[in-house]
Protein: Molybdate-binding protein ModA
Organism: Paracoccus siganidrum
Amino acid sequence: MLRPALTALALLAPLPAAADEVVVFAAASLKNALDEIAAEWSAETGHEVTLSYAGSNALAKQIIEGAPADLFISANVEWMDAVDQEGMVAEGARTDLLGNRLVLIAHGQGAEPVEIGPGFPLDQLLDGEKLAMALVDSVPAGQYGKAALETLGVWQAVEADVAQSDNVRAALTLVSTGEAPYGIVYATDAAAEDNVTIVGDFPADSYPEITYPAGLLTGAADQADRDFYEALSGESAGAIFQAHGFTVLN
């Protein structure tokens, strides 16, 4: 007569917690670091992290139009502001997470260094070929790059030679494959690609400070969403971000 009692106990025993899915929309430049962080966090918690990468402008517009996402990490403050102004960032759940640097890269290894400063001869370096950049009027990496070239007084000389891409990783690919001899990307992107060389750093005062804000969105319904958002500011995630070349801001 023990079987009914055992069955009753089995029914009363707590079931394993169901795994939740955390959907993250993130700037393309975060891919390598965020893939690593998400894999580590998923292994520790059992929850799944689904990562969608693109230009911050495209992601912000998708969120505003109703795309299902729990977290947004932008490569500039302006696109996070656009989402926030629509009331789609949870109150008190936004933080400036990371910083970055803007660099000039060349195809392959062993390219000669370039001294970047006011009036530097970028047009002569290009010699009629293309300069790879993200979209200069909407994607943060492209906006930062255009601002730097304008500040240094060389934008007009190279504007016609700019090959614009939907995001900074696409611009990186143009240089790594040799379709463009030079490009402007984040330092972290250059570090993620073996077939490019950083030939120069843009002066920090030639472009706006690069800031990656992270925000928990109002559609985030599970505790796992908030847990992952908070984990991004934790010691383990910070170490991974730093290993990939980002500056940790908090």
Notes: The chain is about 40% helix and 25% strand. The first helix runs from residue 2 to 12. Residues 19 and 45 are 8 Å apart (CA to CA). The chain has two domains: 20-99+210-248, 102-206.
